[in-house]
Amino acid sequence: MEKGNADGQQAMPSGKVLSQLPVLGLRAKRGASDENQPPIEQKRTRRLPMPTRRVAASIATTCSRVSAAAAVPRAQREGRRASLRPGLALPAASVAEVIRRPVPVAAVPKRAALAPAAGNDGKKRAAWDLKGQLTDTRAKMSGYKEKVQRLDEENQQLKRQLQEQVAQNQELSSQVSTLSSTLHTFEEQARQRHQEVMELSGLKKQLEDQLTCQSRTIGELEGTKQDLSALLETREVKLKLVEGNLAQRECENKELRDQVAAQLQTVAQQEERLHQLEMERRRLHNLVQELKGNIRVFCRVRPLLAWEKERQKGLEHLHFPVQDNKALVLSKVEESHIGRDRKGDVKYDFSFDRVFSPACSQEEVFEEIALLVQSALDGYHVCIFAYGQTGSGKTYTMEGPDDMNPETVGMIPRAVQQVFQGARQLEPKGWQYHFTANFLEIYNESLRDLLVGRPERSAELEIKRVSQSSEELHVPNLRYVPVNSEDEVLKLLRTAKANRSVAKTALNDHSSRSHSLFQLRIEGWNPSRDLHSSSVLSLVDLAGSERLDKSFSKGERLKETQAINTSLSTLGLVIMALSNKEPHIPYRNSKLTYLLQNSLGGNSKMLMFVNISPLEENFSESLNSLRFASKVNECVIGTAHVNRK
């Protein structure tokens, strides 16, 4: 009998089998039923199988997620860890094999079949044997509990294995990344080593070629050495022959010295001939200048400025004949007094020694006066001055702009440069020169030295004769500066330009309010010929003529304008008196003409620039300047004489 039956009944003999039929006369005993069991036990009996099913489901789910590395033995895993330690280099194939190798999955034991109820031997109990059924159920329940406990332990063990496998996988992934980086580094090093090997191979080949070339060169040098040794022996033989001929050559040298003496005599004759040719050149040069006229007039029209081009389009009132560079035509449209009819253009024709259009450069202008500057070096007084209304470009022509460059340098710097170059060319011919420069201005009929600071406060300067017997003039207390190069003169020019008197008027924002006079005294001598020459190169930038009705000058400006116009009028009177050969020349009527007395007379050469404004609004002033220049151009003064002793 089962143990459960022993609780309510006595033990029966083992050999007898109880009948299941009811016995008459006896009241049948009730078997164990659900009513004999407490309600709690009944509930437990009914709910026990459910957790068993849930545990089985969780076990199945857990087993399906276990990593493949769980089935790998621990010893094998330890061996792999030892082989994958950081710092050990593995071949790329081994790393790939470790990554691709499948990891076996640990076999999960299948759920064992439920054991049959103890004491039942697999047979089904009778329906009335409720106690036995309860006992069987309890036995099954006990077996299920043991199985659940065992499965829980296995589940915990599998989770621990899973965690170990995850950690191991992370470690392996880190090692694989490290090995991949190491492999990439080794591959890069291998490429570098390969490149170095290729470079070394090329260098080796190059060195081998050089070695071959050097070996060939050594062989050639050895052959050359042998040739030179043979040549040396030959030279020694020839040297002995030359020594034998030396005595004969000494005799010939004596004859040559005699010939040299004769040649020196010929050179002296040639120098004499050269001197005569130089003097003839000077004579012919002076003759050419005299044929051109000792007083010449050049006309120059300045170009329009940028702001002037906006107000005036073109130069319709100025005409430059293409075939004649000495002619200039001014034209003006003249309207009737009624204002309805239009008369024809009124033209004014002028002719000068040379006319320069606005397109002419400073270099082209200087080419025309270069020969005249050469006359100053030859010993003739030369005077070049610029005349014209204010704003017509006189200062630009004579001095150049403030920001000078080789193309815009004025006549004064170019003339000085030519004088010094000519002096250097005459040095081989025995000529020596000494130069002295001064720079002054005539402001309101008073002289001011422009080479000293604040010339308006310096002592008053006067013009005096050098001596009673001499016609030469000089200015005591004026600064005369010895100069030896063009740079020294240019420095003086910059100083004088900064000290010159300028002011703003209605016609010109930077109008020169004085006459500036640069003089370069040239002293030359030829000791071998006992010749001496003296001349003065005067370059004058006259102040601009102005009409009072247009300049609106007042006060100090009015006084300056009157002094300027008076001195310019006196200059015209002097030139006309020289042309007419009058007995009295009014030099003293103006400080300007008095100072230029030696350069305006018959012993000098004179050139006047008449500068014309291109603006049509200055037509009347341009016409007056051209008429005055025409009168000067018609003048004929005496023949110039060289100042030679």
Query: Number of helical segments?
Result: 15
What sort of overall outline do the alpha carbons produce when their principal axes are compared? elongated
Helix coverage percent? 40-55%
Q: Give the class from helix and strand content and strand pairing.
A: alpha/beta
Quaternary state of the chains: single chain
> Percent of residues in beta strands?
15-25%
* Main beta sheet strand tally, sense and closure: 9 strands, mixed
Mean pLDDT: 77
Structure, described:
The chain contains 15 helices and 16 strands. 24% of the residues are buried. The strands form 4 sheets. Strands 1, 5, 6, 7, 8, 11, 14, 15 and 16 form a 9-stranded mixed beta sheet that branches. It has a 3-stranded antiparallel beta sheet with strand order 2-3-4, with helices on one face. 49% of the residues lie in helices and 15% in strands.
List keywords for this structure.
single chain; 645 residues; alpha/beta; 9-stranded mixed β-sheet; 15 helices; disordered N terminus
Q: What's the layout of helices and strands?
A:
Layout: H1 39-47, H2 49-65, H3 74-83, H4 92-100, H5 130-292, E1 295-301, H6 306-311, E2 318-319, E3 327-335, E4 342-351, E5 354-356, H7 362-378, E6 381-388, H8 394-398, H9 411-426, E7 432-443, E8 446-449, E9 464-465, E10 473-474, E11 481-483, H10 486-499, E12 502-503, E13 511-512, E14 515-526, E15 531-541, H11 548-551, H12 556-579, H13 591-595, H14 597-600, E16 604-612, H15 619-633
